[in-house]
Amino acid sequence: MSVKKVFDPNTQQNDLSSKIVVGLERISQAFKVLLWQQAKELGLSPIQIQILIFIAHHNGPLNNVSALAQEFNVTKPTISDAIKVLERKSLVIKDHSSPDSRSYTLLLSNLGQDVVKNTENFTSYLVTQIDKLNEEDQKGLYRILGNLIYQLNKNGILSVQRTCYACKFYQKTTSNHYCHLLEQQLKDADIRLDCVEFEANV
Question: Where do transmembrane segments lie in this chain (predicted)?
């Protein structure tokens, strides 16, 4: 099977899927630009800001070196180096209360919480643009993104997934979706991409 040259403008002229892939790549660039702008203002790296924002919204078991490395698809040494800087800047605190004395989870310091408040809105421009879409377009876009993320995870490209599709409580029904934990039907827009109650379907 021949491989599509999606970045070749001649290929894009006659292939809609290639255009969509290029569009996703441009949006990825936008995320990087917006994140770098915030990082430069604070003297932090993008991964350091991402770690702070992630810790602010996730519980202890996900806030250790191994879990963070998997979350951001980087090596443990990369995460450890980032944590050293955050600790030196008094933005995070290591919690060694785990029974395993060698491991720790990360908590935000008061200063770290202030940094998150001032940085987690780096996506506000993108949110504003998406808010301009009508509701049906938003629902359609979300459904497509959810399925794409699930397939990328299934094929080992994304290492972490906490979406309904991969959860043991999820069931696809003829009408829509069903969550056995919430005991209710779900619409496409109800599907979560980062569920705190997620349990892997193994």
Answer: none
